[in-house]
Design goal:
alpha+beta, six-stranded antiparallel β-sheet, 27 helices, globular
């Protein structure tokens, strides 16, 4: 049987629309806690300085016919080829050309959009079906699988109402499963009878069954499922799906009825009257089945996984059996993320008699810190020691200086902040931090936040609001087992934590059962991912989920059932099931225009984009060792600190034997180090450049040519600064000969 019909099924098209407040509110800052409580409507349009570009952008989002959308999108792309909004404009163009039936153009623009912003299921879903239409089955499967992953990974975009998202998400997932099923059936029908054909049909029927469960009213899904079942020899099951389709109006109705006639004839029955009776009985069954499917989509699925309550034993309980690991952990930055004040822990310069001046402007260029004196400059803070104790004095808006003791230190390597504890138990962070590399005090938020961010104003400290609250802003990643004792969220009050810093159980999970069993000599078998986690045996996704508790900026955090804020009270996973905020909702300062992440707060998201993770199952532990014996000196916790190539050659062993041939540079030169090309230092950290973790990146001339070195930093030109794009194009062309 040949598979005809089905122009393609896109069960739901999501237009690129944004609420009116898109043009008014501010984008989400990075290096901040994102929760359902503080997740606001957003804009990045206020960062578009060119008024013509703003007008053209507004026109793109206005309702119009597909032909007009396509025209406006192409005009925008021509007029503003370096816009921050290229992913959105390209997405609009792709969807417009899908509506117009120009699939070549749709694929061209869609691929370009995803090249800049890959995590976009709202575009991946329709593209997957277009790719099947163009017989690009492998590409379609990848798009559909990525869409399903991102639909589970990301929180709903704010452009879609919270009440509408569950139904929209189900429809998008249904269309993704439909695309996977259709790709399988298309391939199966191109093969001769055999095991591969049989297996493809079986998998496709399973995928389409899932699609129909998610969207039981879609006739194309039911029809294709019927075809898959019929081709597999399951005529009665196929008839049930065809019966559902023939009750719907549209082009599939007559085709479904035709299949039902053939199934009836092949069953040995005959006559019009018999067929009508057959059809009536079958339609009743199909209707009942469809109503059951509808009902099942409106009820939340119960989680039947075993959820045994687990308790925390504390990091000190690990010492007796794991003394070496415990000692090395104590030397790490993780253990020292937040500590009660000790004079020896302070790394800031409290000896200078020069005060910190508010009104000064700070800017980080990526290579140097620039500061200028503002006209509103005034002495704001004095940092000093008195009788061996460290203090801050803050100039209040009413005039007098107020002295606060340093009660806590935050950070221990690149930069250190300081906090004081108020009589009511709240801990507040001083707005001035000390940067070790630049050996100076600065208003760090002014460096990284969009202009006008509340925390850039040093005066907010004296209000003791949530803006400067340690518990509300910092504790989730700087302390262990943070909890709201009243069952609430990230309010400044009622928050407590079990231990300062990142303790053993933040990574290995609640281990009281393990500790008790070991003390009593009762070893037991357990899965690798069950606490205490065995990191040598878990999957790469599980590994990154643990590290991503703190190193995934986009996580949207919600409180657990008893106020848990950075842990979960039960198995199978002890870490919170946080989804990510869509990347388009962050300040543009977080990205380069070529789509790569600019800030290390997105380090996990960067690694998740890499082929090393997606195809090679790489995890953080392949390159980093949080229990390194030299933790005090190895500030980045590198597993191969003295030979960085081993991070790559542990998987790509063949490259180690032909270094110069591969790199076209002397084998012992810096240019021949794997990280120099594949992990260039382009991510902003604590006022220094860290290496990108989007590891598979290679010097991309097309992006460089479009956006320039500033917005698409190229590894080659980082070393060959005297050269230009023309030289690079010539050199790389010669390499490929």
């Amino acid at each position: 049987m040949r598979l005809k019909l089905l122009r393609f099924c896109v069960v739901v098209f999501i237009p690129v629309t944004l609420p009116a407040i898109f043009w008014q509110a501010r984008a989400q800052e990075f290096d901040t806690v994102i929760s359902s409580q503080n997740r606001k409507a957003y804009t990045i349009a206020d960062q578009v300085e060119d008024p013509q570009e703003r007008r053209a952008l507004a026109a793109l989002f206005a309702p119009s016919l597909a032909v007009e959308k396509a025209r406006l999108a192409e005009e925008f792309l021509t007029s503003f080829p370096r816009s921050w909004f290229l992913p959105q404009a390209l997405e609009i163009a792709a969807k417009a050309f899908i509506d117009l039936g120009d699939y070549s153009q749709a694929l061209r623009y869609g691929r370009q959009s995803l090249d800049l912003l890959p995590e976009n299921p709202l575009l991946l879903v329709p593209l997957a079906n277009v790719q099947i239409q163009r017989s690009l089955l492998a590409e379609a499967r990848l798009s559909a699988r990525l869409a399903l992953h991102y639909l589970d990974e990301f929180a709903p975009p704010l452009s879609i109402g919270a009440a509408d998202w569950p139904a929209t998400s189900r429809q998008l997932k249904a269309s993704s499963y439909f695309a996977l099923g259709r790709a399988g059936i298309t391939e199966a029908l191109s093969l001769a009878a055999g095991e591969r054909r049989r297996q493809l049909l079986k998998e496709s029927v399973s995928l389409l069954t899932t699609a129909r469960q998610l969207n039981p009213v879609d006739g194309e899904i039911a029809y294709l499922l019927g075809l898959g079942l019929l081709t597999s020899g399951q005529a009665q099951e196929a008839a049930l799906n065809f019966a559902a389709v023939q009750t719907l109006s549209g082009p599939l109705q007559s085709k479904a009825l035709e299949h039902l006639r053939k199934i009836h004839q092949n069953s040995g029955a005959g006559g019009t009257e018999d067929f009508q009776r057959f059809l009536k009985e079958l339609s009743a069954k199909a209707h009942k089945h469809q109503e059951q499917l509808k009902a099942s989509t409106s009820v939340a699925t119960a989680n039947d996984a075993a959820r045994a309550s687990l308790n925390y034993a504390g990091s000190e309980s690990c010492r007796s059996c794991h003394a070496e690991q415990h000692h090395s952990w104590q030397q790490t930055g993780m253990a020292r993320m937040f500590r009660a004040y000790e004079p020896a822990s302070v790394i800031g310069d409290f000896s200078s008699k020069e005060p910190f001046y508010a009104g000064d402007r700070f800017a980080w260029t990526g290579t140097r810190l620039e500061s200028t004196q503002g006209e509103d400059r005034f002495a704001y803070a004095r940092m000093f020691k008195d009788k061996g104790r460290h203090f801050f004095e803050i100039k209040t808006s009413s005039g007098p200086w107020v002295r606060y003791p340093v009660d806590y230190t935050i950070g221990s390597k690149w930069q250190q902040a300081y906090a004081t504890r108020l009589p009511n138990g709240q801990i507040h962070v001083f707005p001035v931090q000390y940067n070790v590399l630049h050996k100076r005090w600065l208003n760090f938020w002014q460096v990284i936040d969009p202009e006008g961010s509340p925390r850039t104003d040093v005066r907010t400290f004296e209000k003791f609001s949530s803006v400067t609250s340690y518990q509300a802003n910092c504790a989730v990643c700087h302390t262990s087992q943070l909890r709201n004792t009243q069952g609430g969220g990230f309010e400044a009050d009622d928050l407590e934590f079990r231990e300062p810093g990142i303790n053993c159980e933040m990574c290995h999970g609640p281990s009281s059962r393990h500790v008790g069993a070991m003390r009593e000599g009762r070893p037991y078998e357990k899965p690798a991912a069950e606490p205490p986690v065995d990191f040598t045996k878990i999957s790469s996704r599980e590994y990154l989920a643990v590290c991503g508790q703190c190193h995934r900026q986009s996580a949207v955090r919600d409180a657990g059932p008893h106020g848990e804020l950075n842990y979960w009270p039960s198995t199978p996973a002890f870490y919170p099931p946080n989804k990510s905020r869509p990347f388009g909702e962050f300040s543009r300062k977080a990205f380069y225009k070529d789509g790569r992440f600019r800030e290390t707060t997105f380090i996990v998201e960067s690694l998740q984009r890499s082929a090393c993770f997606q195809k090679g199952q790489v995890n953080c532990g392949h390159c980093h060792d949080v229990h390194a014996k030299d933790a005090a000196n190895n500030l980045k916790s590198l597993r191969f600190a003295t030979n960085s190539d081993r991070m790559c050659t542990q998987c790509h062993a063949s490259q180690a034997q032909k270094t110069a041939l591969h790199t076209r540079h002397a084998a012992d030169s810096e240019a021949s180090r794997c990280v120099s090309c594949h992990m260039p230092a382009i991510m902003n950290s604590m006022l220094f450049r860290a290496r990108t973790h989007q590891i598979d990146d290679i010097p991309n001339v097309a992006r460089l040519e479009r956006f320039g070195q500033e917005e698409s930093p190229n590894a080659c030109l980082q070393c060959h600064q005297e050269k230009n794009v023309s030289w690079l194009k010539t050199a790389l062309t010669a390499w490929k000969r």
